[in-house]
Amino acid sequence: MEFNESEEQNIKFYTAEHVFYNPHMELSRTLSSLLAGSLGEKLFILDGMAASGIRGMRYKKENKNVEKVAFVDVYDAAVECIKKGIKENGIRAEVFREDINRFLFNATNEYNFIELDPFGTPTPHVYFAVRALRNLKSGYLSITATDTAVLCGAHKKACLKNYHSRPMRNYFCHETGLRILINYIARIAHEFNFGIKPLLSFYYRHQMKTIIRLEKGAEKADENLRQMGYVSFCPKCLNATSGKTMEKTCSICGKENDFAGELWLGEINDKKMIKKMLGLNEKRKYESREQVERFLSLIEEELSIPYFFDTHGIAKAYGKMPPKTEKMVKLLKKHGFEGSRTHFSPTGFKTDASIKEIVSLLAGRNV
Prior knowledge:
7-stranded mixed β-sheet, Rossmann fold, Phenylalanyl-tRNA Synthetase, Chain B, domain 1, 15 strands
């Protein structure tokens, strides 16, 4: 077998024909490692569908609290690449050639942190991942989805089939898609009497990622249900609302609303955890340290409102060009509204103001 040697954050790893590696997802792997290192407890990590194994290797090499890491992949070439990589880096780890669902079905309490980074939708694997944690009081799931076209509404029937939720195609569709993914995980967790607490969730370069803490208990599981609902959106006037039910007509202009759901309406990031990650990032010598700091700081600032407005969208709909995003946020705060930027879009902003109030502010009128 012919191996190709690569390096990420001073860790050598190997690929071969049909062994996938995406260099553009280095930021995602860095954020995942920072979160693992910020947890403050011993982790036993399973890197499922590991491919080159670089994510699992970084978990182990960069974090003293990672006691054990194991790798699973169904392809012989991937297994050989991983074995060569862990030997090169002095990592003691088990490597399994196995279908991930079969492996998870037979897993018995060995792991408390399960990483799933499939090609496309993770939905065929979430049930087995949660089931593998069923005997623990708590555990962690790190789930990636790359079927963003489905989650963002380009293929609504596929989203309904895979995630049991209706997507919506507009300027905040990436947030909608991420919240649909989290909602799906919450539904499966509820079956096993787990409540969920999203610690880190983001969209970056055609990837949706969420890392979630599962906590055992009937009350915590039932709390999941109280965090589920719908987002309604008026394509005419751009008003958006959220709640336990969808609104069929717009409360501002009376036109028919579009809607998405069922989806997760609760927090998608733990701000205390983000702060710990920022502190840890300062101590590490990542080449991308400044990029990581900017990205995490944006997430830390972001309001938990499950949608956002877009300056370009407002300009197109109303013929009024808002100021740059930062100035728009300052304008909202000046008039007593909440406001923040959002990592989902450089032209997006979050606020508790309605579109009517936003447009009125832009026209220079008091509201």
